[in-house]
């Protein structure tokens, strides 16, 4: 049943995929197809004291709710903006003396919102929340046991007058969240900090090579007048020109996996078999497992591939332990083994290059990090969609690394490329795009200085690097 409408997209029967959305008119690259506030959203348990429960921004000092002592906010403005969503939750937490896990908190917020708005939050919402797919019948035994525990905890927590719900209906809501919950990132897009439910977004089907992307816009609550505040919302943006009538798709998983591995992840989490062209035709699988141009023997490729897999497990373990010198040592060893055996587009080589550049940058070995970052970007560019957000952010990090290494020409060029991609995927007003715009302006000034007087530029740069670094929110 369609309950609303939007100008740029229409609900249609997508055959075996169920419902879907298609373009109501031609869309250009970078255009916002639709924006949607969350029906309900919560901060992850692990970030409950570090992230604002209203705008989902990381902040150093947060204001705690004096009533439940659980919710945290940037300031009174964010707390006031969130009160309608937090009010019932606040009372429930006080009643039981502690906050339940994020799954229970989100299910409760969804049900409180359904009671308030009968499942329809706006005229543009195309489907009622409780009409979304839950796939509870498809859950494996282990997940069903977790679900039963969550349902029990929910019943202890739930508070809405005398209104009670059956275990089956509560399970239905949990199933909807598990299949349709959208991970929310912090203001820099670098860390997953929460999860939310967006009904219209749930109608956009998956494709491993999609024509749209999804980005979280954290809104703006800084204006003195609350009438000028904007809501936290997702934006679905066109990655390319989309003709009228074409189905709108986003990717539910990162493309940098073999088609069989992507299909496995999608089946386990979303309960469908991906038949997109890139999976059914195994497009780019050959590049992701390619041998070097020197044509090493099949036995040598297998030996180095097995070694790389084991080495990546050791690298992950050392990273978790914070032993970054060991991480660098393992990366050097692994990259040495891979040289002239695995291609620069091989997944294992790209993963080691990514870790090496990130850790060396953290250790301020920028020149070495830049070399690895450059090779990583070259591989990513051959694999990702040209307007993929992950590609844009990888190029941005590589550009910053080159900039810090004093390689201003390469740094500025990479930052400009990243900016062009994020203008499509994030738009001009996103915090990350604004950061890139500032970096692009700064590197342009430095590049002019470098071309006019190279020695003076390096003197200025060395002096700047000696200054203490200050962090911004």
UniProtKB/TrEMBL annotation:
Known EC number: 2.1.1.354
GO CC, alphabetical: nucleus
Reactions it catalyzes: L-lysyl(4)-[histone H3] + 3 S-adenosyl-L-methionine = N(6),N(6),N(6)-trimethyl-L-lysyl(4)-[histone H3] + 3 S-adenosyl-L-homocysteine + 3 H(+)
Keyword check for Hydrolase: no
Enzyme class at the top of the EC tree: transferase
One example of a Gene Ontology biological process annotation: methylation
The protein's name in its UniProt record: [histone H3]-lysine(4) N-trimethyltransferase
Domain (MYND-type): residue spans on this chain: 52-90
Keywords: Metal-binding, Methyltransferase, S-adenosyl-L-methionine, Transferase, Zinc, Zinc-finger
Taxonomy, superkingdom: Eukaryota
Organism this protein belongs to: Seriola lalandi dorsalis
Domain SET: 1-253
Lineage: Eukaryota, Metazoa, Chordata, Craniata, Vertebrata
InterPro entries noted in UniProt: H3K4_H4K5_MeTrfase (IPR050869), SET_dom (IPR001214), SET_dom_sf (IPR046341), TPR-like_helical_dom_sf (IPR011990), Znf_MYND (IPR002893)
Molecular function terms from GO: histone H3K4 trimethyltransferase activity; zinc ion binding
Record has Repressor as a keyword: no
Record-linked Pfam families: SET, zf-MYND
């Amino acid at each position: 049943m369609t309950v609303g409408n939007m100008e740029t997209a229409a609900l249609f029967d997508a055959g075996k995929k169920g419902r879907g959305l298609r373009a109501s008119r031609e869309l250009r690259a970078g255009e916002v197809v639709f924006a949607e506030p969350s029906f309900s959203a919560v901060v992850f348990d692990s970030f409950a004291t570090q992230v604002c429960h209203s705008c989902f921004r990381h902040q150093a000092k947060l204001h705690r709710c004096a009533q439940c002592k659980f919710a945290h906010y940037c300031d009174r403005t964010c707390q006031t903006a969130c009160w309608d969503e937090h009010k019932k939750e606040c009372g429930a937490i006080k009643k039981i003396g502690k906050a339940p896990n994020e799954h229970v908190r989100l299910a409760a917020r969804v049900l409180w919102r359904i009671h308030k708005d009968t499942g329809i939050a706006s005229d543009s919402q195309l489907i009622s929340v409780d009409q979304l797919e839950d796939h509870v019948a498809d859950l494996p035994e282990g997940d069903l046991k977790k679900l039963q525990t969550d349902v029990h905890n929910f019943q202890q927590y739930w508070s809405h007058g005398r209104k009670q719900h059956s275990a089956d209906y509560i399970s239905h809501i949990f199933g909807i969240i598990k299949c349709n919950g959208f991970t929310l990132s912090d203001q820099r897009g670098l860390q997953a900090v929460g999860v939310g439910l967006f009904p219209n977004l749930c109608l956009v089907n998956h494709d491993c090579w999609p024509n749209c992307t999804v980005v979280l816009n954290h809104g703006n609550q800084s204006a003195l007048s609350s009438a000028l505040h904007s809501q936290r919302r997702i934006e679905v943006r066109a990655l390319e020109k989309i003709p009228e009538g074409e189905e709108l798709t986003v990717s539910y998983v990162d493309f940098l996996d073999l088609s069989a591995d992507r299909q496995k992840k999608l089946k386990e989490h979303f309960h469908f078999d991906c038949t997109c062209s890139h999976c059914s035709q195994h497009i780019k699988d050959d590049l992701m497992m390619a041998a070097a141009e020197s044509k090493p023997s099949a036995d040598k490729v297998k030996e180095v591939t097995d070694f790389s897999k084991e080495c990546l497990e050791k690298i992950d373990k050392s990273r978790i332990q914070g032993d970054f010198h060991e991480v660098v040592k393992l990366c050097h060893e692994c990259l040495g083994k891979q040289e002239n055996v695995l291609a620069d587009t091989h997944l294992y080589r790209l993963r080691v290059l990514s870790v090496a550049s990130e850790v060396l940058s953290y250790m301020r070995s920028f020149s070495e990090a830049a070399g690895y970052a450059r090779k990583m970007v070259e591989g990513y560019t051959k694999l990702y969609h040209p307007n993929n957000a992950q590609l844009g952010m990888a190029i941005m990090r590589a550009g910053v690394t080159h900039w810090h290494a004093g390689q201003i020409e390469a740094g500025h060029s990479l930052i400009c490329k990243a900016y062009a991609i994020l203008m499509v995927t994030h738009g001009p007003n996103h915090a990350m795009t604004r950061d890139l715009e500032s970096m692009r302006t700064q590197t342009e000034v430095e590049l002019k200085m470098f071309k006019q007087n190279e020695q003076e530029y390096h003197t200025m740069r060395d002096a700047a690097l000696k200054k203490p670094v200050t962090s911004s929110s």
